[in-house]
Write a structure and sequence with these properties.
- It contains 4 helices and 3 strands; from the N terminus they run αβββααα.
- The chain is mainly alpha-helical.
- It has a domain of 68 residues.
- The termini are far apart.
- The model has no long low-confidence stretch (mean pLDDT 85).
Length: 119
């Protein structure tokens, strides 16, 4: 009992002090330029130029239609399904499988948002 509690405390300490979290600057963001009031897309705090944005949009469309994306999506769905049902041993397995499906949803939504960016 004490050993598990110490393990949790130690893991919590490591995650809190060593894990480098992701911030909102690490993702694409749609913002409004305060001077011109025009929308701008930023990545890591820097505004993207139209050429770079066009390239990202093209990459998103190609990636979404690629065999690799479809293969990874299908493999992740299968792994999630297996984790939630045949391989499920504890309640957390169902939660873990749902989290995997949530990851797929976030990826799909991100691709959709990128494709909808207006230049």
């Amino acid at each position: 009992m004490i050993k598990k509690r110490l393990q949790k405390l130690f893991i919590g300490f490591l995650v809190k002090h060593l894990y480098k979290g992701i911030t909102s600057d690490d993702v694409l963001a749609l913002q409004v330029n305060p001077r011109t009031l025009k929308p701008m897309i930023t990545y890591q705090g820097k505004s993207l130029d139209p050429e770079r944005l066009m390239k990202i949009k093209e990459d998103a469309e190609v990636f979404e239609n690629s065999f690799l994306y479809k293969l990874m999506d299908t493999n992740t769905r299968l792994a999630s399904q297996n984790k939630m049902f045949p391989q499920s041993n504890v309640d957390n397995d169902l939660l873990f499988g749902k989290a995997m499906l949530y990851n797929l949803q976030v990826q799909k939504e991100t691709l959709e948002k990128i494709k909808e960016f207006k230049l």
